[in-house]
Amino acid sequence: MSTMEEVVVTATRQEEKISSVPANVSVITETDIKNSTAYDIPDLLRKQAGVHVNDIAGNRRNYTVDLRGFGETAPLNTLVLVDGRKINQADLSGSDWGLIPLDRVKRIEIIRGGRGSILYGDNAAGGVINIITKEGEAFHTGAEISGGSYDTFKGSAYVSGTKDKLSYALSGSYLTSEGYRENSDTEAKDVGLNLGYYQNDRLKWNLSSGFHKDSTGLPGAIKTSEFSEGISRTDSLQPDDFADIEDYYFKGGPEFFFLSNSEFKVDISFRKRNFLSFASFDAGNFTGATDIKTITVSPQISFKEKLWKFDNSLVIGFDFSDVDEDITNSSVFFGIPSTGIFELKKKNYGYYIHDEIRPWENFAISGGYRHDRAEFNFKPSTPDHKTMSEDLFTAGVNYNFHEKSSIYISYARSFRYPVMDELFSFFTNTVDTTLIPQSSDNYEFGIRHHFTPTLYANVNFFRMDTNDELFFNPTTFGNENYDGETRRDGIEISLTKIIDKITLTGNYTYTDATFADGQLENNDVPNVPNHKAALSGLFTLGKGFSLIVDGIYVGERPFISDFSNDFEDQDDYVIVNMKLKYQYNKITAFLNINNITDEAYSEYGGISTFPITEPGFFPSPKINFLAGISADF
User: Fold this and answer.
1) Which long-range contacts (CB under 8 A, 24 or more apart) does 549-553 make?
2) Residue 308: which residues within 8 A CB-CB, separation 6 or more?
């Protein structure tokens, strides 16, 4: 983490210094990315306070990223943006972390807590992660090639720059790997493009686009009984399961600058995603083909002008999205085949306003409001539609007591709608009219302090009370609103220290996620560890050499679907990764050694209910290597 003051756009949908935001905010910079052992975006995120990452299949293609302890519903409660464009799906699939390769990323902004719901709407109950991609500046071109364990090969290249009034950035990458386990092979192709054109001093046109295609094996879980029968960690009992994805998008629009520091902009985007998967299980198999088209329009006006004698930042906007999902499901249950063809639609409208005023230079008061409405339509279905709406509020106070140091307190009301796959039953062709949106009350208190230019610390306390939490009940095999309140209390501590040629960063997170009352009163929320810690060191060795060492600890946590806490918790684990880097002029060579202690562990595990109820594990890779060379000109 850089110790310099960073500017974020995610917190208010316009530029603002971190020290002015009444929430726990992190920025992962381009320098941080280069000085890390990370292979992809989730690898970067797993080292952040308050973020719990699971690589489900152990092949870096299927991740869950959890902010603030939502466990197995984390993909539906963590909002992921790319350049401000939402990439969460309107179905159960959540976010695809493979869409943006790491070498296309300029920086990543993390806003923890429910504050983002006012500005971005659905899916932001736990927080917002905004991935900012690279734009053209001075002319640069480069390439990287790497390879390692499991026959892994990756190649990438980019070119960027400016010409007259046009800026451009074009990148592409290719990845193939056999994976740690049988049937965990993957092949991925990506292309990304960013264009910017300044028509004059007041008007800029933006266009960005991306294409992603991958084919990945799904090795599945290994049950406790299967381990006892001699199945090894690298085996797969689902050798034919797979997922194929093709995803592309276009996003563009004008930015018009007026007055001294205000602007009006419109973002318009189109996304098309095709998903084909095959899954086998004890009772049969399932093939799903899904085609999702999403259109979004988001006009926004920002005033950053004096209000009387006070600095004031006002944002007013409107978000509209139109999602059309075509589904063909083919299944065989106990030898009986069936096919279903469905069309699911969702239209979402959100109106928001957010204002920050500074009565004094070092004191800010902020508040916001959002009205959000969603209209769902299903075919074939009886009934065939459902409408929901929510009203949200936020308020915060931030006091800068010394330069970049600040103390803050805030409140936010967040929510999430049921996704289309939760509302609709593919077996009965009916809409569950009893499901309603979940809502949360978020409370934050924190201190950010730079003790010296080389020593920085951040402490944040939070409480989140959630009513009507949406979850899949493994007992009833249905999606439900929980009948009581879910409470999440926690503390997030981060520390950065620079000592001569050594930079040390560390963090610790304590999360107590429990069902406060209702049918599961006092039980722990599945897949949420009480304790998580990370420690990283960057050592500048001289003569072009540097060494990065990362250590991550994840504590015990209940298995996925173990809401009643009947089973022993999944084991804790410690993983240590290392990267040795040598730079000569514009050429860089590196060697990554991951899991250098060769620990046998599983990041992800759940309870299987058929034919018997028992834990199942998704084994994670043991020690592995990746080496490569890059050139930047």
Assistant:
1) 549/37, 549/576, 549/577, 549/578, 549/579, 550/36, 550/37, 550/47, 550/576, 550/577, 550/578, 551/575, 551/576, 551/577, 552/46, 552/47, 552/576
2) none
Q: β-strands 545-554, 310-333: how paired?
A: unpaired
Tokens at 310, concatenated: 């006070």
Pairing outcome for strands 310-333 and 284-307: antiparallel
- As a whole number of angstroms, the distance between CA 582 and CA 570 comes to 39
Q: Are 376 and 431 in contact (CB under 8 A)?
A: yes
Is the pLDDT score of 4 beyond 60? no
Kind plus residue range of the DSSP H or E element containing 349: strand 336-360
Instruction: Tell me how far CA of residue 261 lies from CA of 11, 141, 178, 356, 388, in angstroms.
Output: 18, 33, 52, 15, 37
Please tell me the total number of residues recorded for the chain in this structure. Answer: 633
Residues 457 and 103: their CA atoms lie apart, in Å, by 29
Own/partner contacts of 328-336, CB < 8 Å, gap of 24 or more, are 328/288, 328/289, 329/286, 329/287, 329/288, 329/289, 329/426, 330/286, 330/287, 330/288, 331/284, 331/285, 331/286, 331/287, 332/284, 332/285, 332/286, 333/283, 333/284, 334/283, 334/284, 335/284
**Element of type H or E holding 228:** helix 224-228
Report the distance separating Cα 429 and Cα 289, nearest Å.
18
Q: What is the DSSP string of 41-88?
A: HHHHHTTSTTEEEEESSSSSSSEEEEESS-GGGHHHHEEEEETTEE--
CA atoms of 192 and 200, how far apart (whole Å) = 26
Q: 427: pLDDT confidence band, cut at 50, 70 and 90? A: confident
φ/ψ bin of 226: left (φ > 0), alpha (ψ from -120 to 50), beta (otherwise) = alpha
Cα separation values, 431 from 115, 475, 480, Å: 30, 20, 13
Here the tokens at position 496 are: 């950065």
Q: Is the pTM of this model over 0.90?
A: yes
Tokens standing for 424? 């609709």
Q: Say what percent of the chain tops pLDDT 90.
A: 86
User: CA–CA separation, 528 vs 474, rounded Å?
Assistant: 18
Averaged pLDDT for residues 179-197: 96
Cβ(630)–Cβ(581) below 8 Å? no
